[in-house]
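Comment thread on ticket #2218

A.B. wrote:
> Attaching the input chain for the structure job we discussed in standup.
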Amino acid sequence: MESIDGAVIRGWLRRASAVLEAEKTYLTELDATIGDSDHGENMARGFRAVAAKLNGLADAGADRRFGVSHGRRNPGVHAQADPGDSEAG
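C.D. wrote:
> Ran it. Output below, let me know if you need it in another format.
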């Protein structure tokens, strides 16, 4: 069984970013039939920002934000901003 820690979660998010970037044209084509044809680009842009933000996270800080400790989700702990995070608030 795979242990879930900050590094694993960051890997999932980076993979999601790569897949959305690769498939943004297809997602936009799907959106064209019922929307305004911008879904693929918006999702890719959002996940590019997520991937860029991940580069600045240290393992301990990311684990704390996601409520992960020793490979297990901490019951009752919700994702929260790091008290030292300038964007918190």
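A.B. wrote:
> Thanks. Noting for the ticket: Residues 74-89 have pLDDT under 50 and may be disordered.
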